[in-house]
Amino acid sequence: MSPEMIGVIGIVALLALFLLRVPVSVSLIVVGTFGLAMIRGWNTALTQLGTTPFSTAASYSLSVIPLFILMGMFLSYSGFGHDLYTAVDAWIGHIKGGLAITTIGTSALFSAISGSVNATTATMARISLPEMKKYNYDDGLSTSCVAAGGTLGILIPPSVILVLYGILTMEPIGQLLIAGLVPGLLQMALFMLIVYVMVWRNPELAPVTEKKTFRTRIKSMNSVWPFLFLFALSIGGIYFGFFTPTEAGGIGAFGAFLLAVLTRRLNWADFKKSLSETTRLTAMIFFIIIGADIFSKFLALSRIPAATTNFVSNLEMPAVIILIAILIVYFILGLFLEGIAIFVLTLPVVYPLITDVLGYNGIWFGVVMIFVMNIGLLTPPLGLSVYIISGVAKDVPIQRIFRAVMPMLFMMIVALALVVIFPEIVTFLPDYMRQ
Amino acid sequence: MLKVFTRFEKVFNKIEDFLQFLSNVALIFIMLIISIDVLGRNFFNKPLKGTYEMTELVAALLVFFALAITHRHGDHITMDFLVERFNKKVQHWLNGIIEVCISFLLIYMSTHIFANGARMMERNATTTDLSIPTGPFLYITGIALIIFAITAFMKAINHFRGAVSKHES
């Protein structure tokens, strides 16, 4: 059997294992090992199985993942999310659709620190939904804002998923983290804009709330500075080259810990929970990376990436058409597969195609993939963010939330189109860093 | 028999919890040494020697110590939407068989990691700055994988119990 054929069978087997509810990490290890054995013999395969797990986990640059997650956990458990919401509300809560816009703005800030869609969505749902309900906001509008706001978490730095992309593609992690900033802010502005337009057209969606006094506004800022400080310290440090991303993570986590303890917001039980949730999330992600490492070695030996690259470079089609075709495939995959699974399954084949054949910037493509994955977070049947919200807002039917996020999805597609048409939105900050 | 299993499960859960504790300690350790290194380098011109390699070795411990409890909590990512449509008994059988396969894979993996550890010990492989031997770390990794395998096996037994139980349909 030709290596290419073995590669195709491997991919089909991998999808079958995913569907049988075998953990993504284990599926990758099994298929990768068998595939390597078929192509290079059992000796090579078993050597990989004995060396890859430790050498992958014992990585300095990968340590950035638990550190940034820990920073988010400390802040999340310390209740800083609520303070942040109050502060943003004091400044912009009174404008049309103010609380909804506040939710999006707070999600952006909160996710900047937490780096996780699930954590941001769950926290913001608990904080903002009762508040919007109190002011008779439309259920659909309020839940869709939380869903949309949460997706900003994997764009605005530090994004754990972009770190993962960097590890899988060898793109520089620091530049990748910075690259998500402007597109994240753009997406945030577009979400706010659509809320404003919707409420302007139908004021009943969001009754007006009272304007806060200047004194209240200033007072509310007291609780925001820790966020701004930690963000400036860790992300600013990476941007100006003071720290490596791992060092920024370490300092960020330690800073968050000190803040939480000094302000007496973190009790012993929550401290333990922050650590345990972080280590479990890390173990899950690292085990996938170990699997992805073995699987991508197999895929490279199967010559499928090279064959695909050859095939596409012989197509006489403009690069942008091929790119759009690839994005459509990603969109379809995103409807059924978890984002991380899509990354590990497709990047070994698609990344060389995008950078070597089509000539696109690898960092830019990472951000584009995040946009496409985010769309999958809000669409059925998977729609993870929507399920998280429906777990909190039990009185809102899930179909209603799926319907309500449509305008947000539209804005996500607009943002994606803007990023594809004007790649500089993504690349100009990392380019400055390089200089 | 059931009593013995339940008692074993209780004791074993304690072992998993202890590994979680060690993993948490590893995380704090990494956070602290990196912070000390950065602060030392920037303010006292005195970086912490060996931070890079200590972070690497301890990060591996962090991951492998937490694998078993992550599996116990069902935190490893799976695609549920197809299997969820099967009836409960079929789900239990399927999950049970998958868990048995996972535990065999992990045992197999750990034997090869032990072999790799033995090679490292023979070669007296150490880290560059602090000359920490790397072989023992591989052995610890292998042991953590065996504990992960036992977690998977116990999940399998619980699934099979669910599959033959009269209350499940």
Relevant terms:
heterodimer; A: 79% helix; 0% strand; globular; B: 169 residues; 76% helix; elongated
Please characterize this protein's 3D structure.
The complex is a heterodimer of chains A (435) and B (169). Chain A has 435 residues and is mostly helical. Chain A has 23 helices and no strands. Chain A has helices spanning 3-19, 24-40, 42-57, 64-77, 80-92, 98-114, 117-134, 139-151, 160-169, 173-179, 181-201, 214-220, 225-239, 245-262, 268-301, 304-314, 319-336, 339-357, 362-377, 384-392, 398-404, 406-421, 424-434. The mean pLDDT of chain A is 86. Chain B is mainly alpha-helical and 169 residues long. Chain B has helices spanning 2-43, 51-72, 88-122, 135-164. Chain B starts with a helix and ends in a 5-residue tail after the last helix. The interface between A and B is large, with 57 and 55 residues.
SSE order and pairing:
The complex is a heterodimer of chains A (435) and B (169).
Chain A: H1 3-19, H2 24-40, H3 42-57, H4 64-77, H5 80-92, H6 98-114, H7 117-134, H8 139-151, H9 160-169, H10 173-179, H11 181-201, H12 214-220, H13 225-239, H14 245-262, H15 268-301, H16 304-314, H17 319-336, H18 339-357, H19 362-377, H20 384-392, H21 398-404, H22 406-421, H23 424-434
Chain B: H1 2-43, H2 51-72, H3 88-122, H4 135-164
Helix pairs in contact in B: 1-2, 1-4, 2-4, 3-4
Number of strands of chain B: 0
Mean pLDDT of chain B: 90
Residues in helices of chain B, as a percent range? over 70%
The best one-word shape of chain A is globular
Report the largest inter-chain contact.
A-B, 57 and 55 residues
- Tell how many strands the DSSP assignment of chain A holds: 0
User: Based on helices, strands and strand pairing, what is the structural class of chain B?
Assistant: mainly alpha
Number of helical segments of chain A?
23
